[in-house]
Each structure stands twice: as C-alpha cells, then as structure tokens.
Specification:
binds pyridoxal-5'-phosphate; 12% strand; Aspartate Aminotransferase, domain 2; 42% helix; Aspartate Aminotransferase, domain 1; seven-stranded mixed β-sheet; 10 strands
Length: 369
Amino acid sequence: MIPVLIPSLPETDAIVPYLRRIDQSHIYSNYGPLSRAFTETLCRFVSERADGAPVAATITGSGTTAIELALRYRIAGRKGRLCLMPAYTFVATAHAAVNVGLEPFFADVDPETLALTPAIAARALAAAGGDVAAVVVVSPYGAPIDVAAWEAFETAHGIPVVFDAAAATLNLHRVGAQPICVSLHATKALGIGEGGAILTTDTDLVAQTTAMTGFGFSASSRVSEVRGGNYRISEYAAAVGLAVFDGLEARIQQLRDASLAYVAGFERIGVRMQPGFGRDWLTMTITALFEPGTADAVTAGFDADGIQWRRWYGTGCQAHPAFATCRHDGLAGTAAAAASAIGVPFFPAITPAQIDAVCGSVERSLAAR
Ligand SMILES: Cc1ncc(COP(=O)(O)O)c(C=O)c1O
C-alpha cells in the first residue's frame, strides 16, 4: 500500500534543546520566549519569500481559528450576515464563518485552477443580493494567491477580503494588508502539529487579533478591550515550530525533488496538475487533474494497485449536511473541479519508485479505457 500522506515533524532529538529552555524559564504559555521567537522566525521567513514587505503575524491554535479571528476583525462594525466563499474548499472555511456569526454563501470556482476568481466573486456578490459582510478567498491546496487582484476587488466592491491560504505558507509571493490565514497542522508543508497564523502588513490587525487570542487583553493589561478567547499556542508547540525552521531548507529541497519527479511523470503521460505546481510552488496535498469522465477509471486502478488517493475537498462544502441549506450561485465549476481533482500519494520521504508506481497505474488505467 502506498499511503496518500505520511505527516512528518522534527524528531525528538531536534526538539530537546528547545524543551530544555522551557525547563529553565518555567514559562509554558502566554506568549513566552519560544512563542515570540517562533513568531519572529515565521515573519522573517515569509517576508523574505514575499516581496520583502515587513510581515507581522498573529499565532493561533489552528488555521480555522486564524480565519475566525481575521474575519471577526474585518467585519467589526459592518453590516451583512453572509460570507462569500468558494464551495470547493476544506469544510473548515465554512465552520470558521459560522463561528463568527456569518452564513456561508457558496461561490463557484474555475475548474482549471480550482480557485475562486474576482470575476466569479463579483457575479456571486450580485446573486447574494447585497448582504455580504466579507469574502474568504481560498488557496486551493496551497496554490499562490493573486493578492494584487484581490486588493483591486476589495477597492472596487468595498467588501473586506480574508485569505484562507491554509496550505500556502511556503508559497506567499506577496503579503499586503489583507490578512492571509495559514494552517500549521501536521499535514502542511510547514506544520508544527496544531497551529495557525494570520500574516499581514497591518500592525493594527495583528495587535487586535493577538489580543483576541488571549481574552481580548491588550499587551499590558488584564482588561478585555475586545472580545476574544483562548486561541494561543503553548511554548511546547513553539519548541516544535523552532525545530521545524532548523530543518526547513532540507525539507523544502526534499519536497521540491519529489514534486518535480511527479511533474515529469505526469507530463510524460499527459496528465495535468495545478498550474505552476512543483516549479513555482510546493504543497503536501498533491492533486492531479483528470479529463472529464476519466477520474473514476484512475481511482479504480489505484484501488486495485494498493495506491491510496483522496478527494481532499470532497465534492464541496455544500455536500456536508451542516452546510446543505446555505445558498449558492450555481456550482457547475465546483462539480467539474471535484470530479477532476484527485489527491495522489505524497510525503517528504516518497521514493522515485513509488512515484513511478503511481504514474504507471494512471497510465495503465487511461490506456485501458
Ligand atoms: C483550505 C483549508 N482551510 C482551513 C483549514 C483548517 O486548518 P486547521 O486544520 O489548522 O484548523 C484547512 C486544513 O487542512 C484547509 O485545508
């Protein structure tokens, strides 16, 4: 059996030096020294890979709560009860909106890129009928986001945009004031177990959402200035995070080599992947895009060959009973995306032979049709 994903985090020995610092400081949470060091390291990493803008971050307990806090900040004082978002996303996006009192309105996606576009969002805004408080733009499986296009969208429509870029921490080419929410879950290319972050150049947003992570207290007081809760990470999570950065360059190289092997293997047999994947950006949930009517034969072949696969976003959020009554503007592109996009085995230690086995299985299934 070739598994679809094997998460891997730093091993014990790499974490121990940071754990010893906790033993000495006796600080276990509440924005302690390791948490602050992790936040600074993450900001520097993202800044350097983006356009050099000084990125600030709010660290949260998960990617889902990062989206919640970013939304809560951006809808404060605004009218509207709907949150426009693509139906084709992991269901966490929809939960986050509901958790801050909004109701998802599902928009379609472009089946070529699997992403919501400003044009599709503008059409959905009109269909929603003027009751939209915010738009959540999702980076499908970590694909880079066109921040400039969404800044123009926000200016044109006057509706705040929040990015759910859960899997895109390695792929942020630009960071602006609009909050970019990432997940640091173990299954992500940059994972620490559980965690999330809001990345932005807006320091007021970071000050307010950081306060929200600790009961709404501002840095120097025990007075709740804003509504909040406990969304912090512990020093133990930050210890893992610092160890992750120690090994990150080597891990990125490993991911890049395996990704390029997949790109070459699928190119050889004429199978598409997400635009730019492998050459321009990396992820842990690698998705191949099959032509209409062919994916079922490929997945049957995978089952017969002992190759695990997954439709990581299922058939869209509207298919979940919890969100079945949410409105949408027609989801033909979502159905096409869900039918075509199949997650194939991928993990840092995947071998060339395993990648050959996956591509060979696809080639045989397509030839037998
Ligand atoms: C698109 C998307 N949004 C949100 C999340 C939620 O992140 P977390 O599991 O860290 O809460 C995920 C997690 O996989 C995701 O893929």
